[in-house]
Amino acid sequence: MTLADPAQITPRASASPAEAAPAARQRDVRLDFFRGIAMFIILFAHTPGNFFTSWIPARWGFSDATEIFVFCSGMASAIAFGRAYDTVGWRLGTARVSFRVWQVYWAHIGLFFAVATFLAAIDMSGAYDKVYIGTLNLWKFFAEPGPQLVGLLTLTYVPNYFDILPMYMVVLAMMPLIMALSRVHLGLVAAFVGLVWLFAQERVLAMLGLAHLNLALPAEPWSDRTWFFNPFGWQLIFFTGFAFMRGWLPKPPVTPLLIGIALALVLLNIPLSNIGIREFGFDWARDWRIANKALIDKSDFGILRYAHFLALAYLCWVAAGDKGARLLTEGTGPLARVWQRTLAIILKVGQQSLAVFIVSMFTARVSGFVMDNIGRETWTVVAVNLAGMGVLVLTAYGAGWYKSQPWRRKAVK
Question: What is the pTM of this model?
Answer without folding.
Answer: 0.89
